[in-house]
Amino acid sequence: SMFMVGDALLHADIPWDADTGGHNYDFSRILGHVGAIAKPYDLAYYNQETILGGDDLGIHGYPTFNGPQAWGDAMESYGFNLVSLANNHSLDMGQTGLNNSLNFWKKKSDVVTSGVYASQADREAIPVHEVNGIKYAFFSWTYGMNGLQCPDGQEYEVACYDGHEKEMLDQITAAKKQADVVIVAMHWGTEYVSEATSEQQRIGQELADAGADIIVGNHPHVIG
User: Fold this and answer.
1) Which of 29, 138, 148, 223 is deepest in the core (most CB within 10 A)?
2) Residue 223 pLDDT class (50, 70, 90 cuts)
């Protein structure tokens, strides 16, 4: 069984509301209801749109977001174990934020992430996981990063499909040979528009043809 929710985009009011002092947060009032729904599922997915760079980088919202890592702890406690990291805010806090986020998620042995990587080998890898005897692969891709770019030679850090569609499709095709189910999280579309763009329709069909079984869309801030 699989449960999916959308973007965790932490505008400043969210951590401020949950702040109990001393870099401690209580997100139960905000997350309790959706967490209770998510917890019984084998896989619970969400998109961590705000980079979890941690309190030392300053907690702030729009236009360049940074969130407390306590948010990730809270989501994990509610059973969210499938997390996409590739989105248009992945580079909001630069290299330090990206590295802080990666190091945070690496400690979560029961959480599978995709979309942000520490090396080219990590990006090219095709991890296959298993739940209830079903093998699955999970990938996350974004249309861009708000005009920001990874450093030269480190383009692998964020899975941006712009200019890399063949790489994305080849990855899915290879994964389908190893897994029963291929899940792809796509950060795409037009904000505040419910209808899919022609590009989404084209890429979505190509993803399905390549072997994607479940395509999860994020980004537009509407229910499509």
Assistant:
1) 138
2) confident
